[in-house]
């Protein structure tokens, strides 16, 4: 009897796992410039099997963000100084063999994150296995670097990012430069690709699409009770480390409860906008997609607790020349863990191949 129960449970578990295993949905303009590139992608044609013991979006997200092992590679740190005296860290992950004019993938972390995030370090390691150098462009005040100016991480100002791109181009002379961002880093990537361009390809993982509207699901239910306090704790800790915040403002930091309140007090005064909502409107994905100068792959999950499925910019992607959207049923936020062991992600399969296929296409059709 006991064996029958065990066998039944095993069969039920396997059937449940098979039910969850599905090919991602792929959206792109079949008449657009992007079409011949997307048609050559092989990884998007393979099934995505979410790790079976990550049984819901919250467990998936928490494990992916906090408990999934990071890469064991030790990056080489390079400091960059900006024109206003601010500094940031560039953390380099290099292949065993660095070829002349080796391509470089710039990786942009989440809000309040950095190189040590599992999604960041593991993707960097994945790039090195494809012969691509990866560099994490940390924001000011992140990854153990002290603040030298009042400025903090935000999705609108991309001059620091552009300074890093120019430095990389000057010092490494890569044949191609790519850019990939997670969450807020995805906002910066899309904004950079639409505003400045000049790189080969971009990728946006767990872009929340519309900051103003995404705040509604993010502030309600479990997300509002768990993720928002967690994020606010990180952001307030970071703000307290900034010695350039005046004392009057500093006294108000402990009272901040939401990201909107944080942005109203600490972010928008330096951006030249009047409200957090105006700031969020200036970096919406739907406005960047039609004007992007660079091919972009978006990867998003239906169950992302930081946003809502109905905000996915599918319509804009289908009308665009340069964008493709990969939609999965599961994946949580900045996670997309797959396989029974829960060590690897869908992004680590899709993004390197995407960059390679874009490169092949444009080099062939120069």
TrEMBL record:
GO MF entry, a single one: short-chain carboxylesterase activity
InterPro entries: AB_hydrolase_4_sf (IPR050960), AB_hydrolase_fold (IPR029058), ABHD4 (IPR012020), Hydrolase_4 (IPR022742)
GO BP annotations listed: lipid metabolic process
Gene3D superfamilies, A to Z: alpha/beta hydrolase (3.40.50.1820)
Record-linked Pfam families: Hydrolase_4 (PF12146)
Domain Serine aminopeptidase S33: 103-308
Active site residues of this protein: 183, 304, 333
Domain of life: Eukaryota
SUPFAM superfamilies linked to this entry: alpha/beta-Hydrolases
Family the entry assigns: Belongs to the AB hydrolase superfamily. AB hydrolase 4 family.
Record-linked PANTHER family: ABHYDROLASE DOMAIN-CONTAINING PROTEIN, ALPHA_BETA HYDROLASE 1, ISOFORM A
Full protein name: Clan SC, family S33, methylesterase-like serine peptidase
Lineage: Eukaryota, Metamonada, Parabasalia, Trichomonadida, Trichomonadidae
